[in-house]
Amino acid sequence: xxxxxxxxxxxxxxxxxxxxxxxxxxxxxxxxxxxxxxxxxxxxxxxxxxxxxxxxxxxxxxxxxxxxxxxxxxxxxxxxxxxxxxxxxxxxxxxxxxxxxxxxxxxxxxxxxxxxxxxxxxxxxxxxxxxxxxxxxxxxxxxxxxxxxxxxxxxxxxxxxxxxxxxxxxxxxxxxxxxxxxxxxxxxxxxxxxxxxxxxxxxxxxxxxxxxxxxxxxxxxxxxxxxxxxxxxxxxxxxxxxxxxxxxxxxxxxxxxxxxxxxxxxxxxxxxxxxxxxxxxxxxxxxxxxxxxxxxxxxxxxxxxxxxxxxxxxxxxxxxxxxxxxxxxxxxxxxxxxxxxxxxxxxxxxxxxxxxxxxxxxxxxxxxxxxxxxxxxxxxxxxxxxxxxxxxxxxxxxxxxxxxxxxxxxxxxx
Length: 414
Fold this sequence. Notes:
This protein has about 425 residues and is mainly α. Helices cover about 80% and strands about 0% of the residues.
């Protein structure tokens, strides 16, 4: 893996470097808080279903807010929108301090929903802006670094979050999360490069004339554009297909805390393994699949297979380190498909509707993930963690088979 192009990008493009640093810091704080709240939920209720409900609240609120966020990202100043989302989340993140027991756990859930609404404004807007903050030749490296930022801070944030929560108490983790939003806002506000490209002529085909349209018109614009482009449609369905089986992540808290009896540290280790896989996956797949249209689709298909195979091995792990290896392998595939699909969408979607495309993409995957987490949590409540895991892997395999059949005309093109 050649590091020079990535280091060159970070050295010479200050706008991208600030955005990259902002996302690293914000993601780290998120995982500090998530590990702490999952540990609290399992401690005070003893119920995997309640822990899964916390993740459902996060993903569900994100899904509901995404269509509105897409309209805002194409209508308003994207820099101000991202900074506003960060600043608004600071007091919300501190509300976690009020959640102490089963009676006040609802406060953490409410705060998580509000934080996810802020994330629904920030993340698709960031993805839509990225092609305008780097040169065209830098876009593949920029996508890999941004894609790896989530995995990097999941690995670091989850591991440190579990350790900090165990050593110093969960309150410290919550304060770190609030501080991360302040740091992110300070970095984004200093970006001087334009977040949108110069628009000369209105484009009626893509809907550039109607950035002020409502949510329904926004979704209709994206659907109309995707119907005439099999490649774009396949990329839009990639993350959603992956989301069908991704509810299995709620079982990481069950395996870490209950199966391996390692408490918050065990949860942190497994989530850190997930993050490390998501970190390295984008770098590895770039060298194998390339960045051609056909390479992107083939790389995503391979990612689905890797995820299913590795997670099917998780229940067979006799000790926590081997379980972490299985989770790491699964999210090599997860991180790869996320980065490949995002890069493909950035190339395929015009800037005038790119905010709506990414909010539609993020909304679909988080809605699917919400339903998947609900199913996984219910299974974990009724069956053993092993049966629940294999059931979710089976659902993931069925969904992936359908996606590969749908995308086949794209990867068969020369």
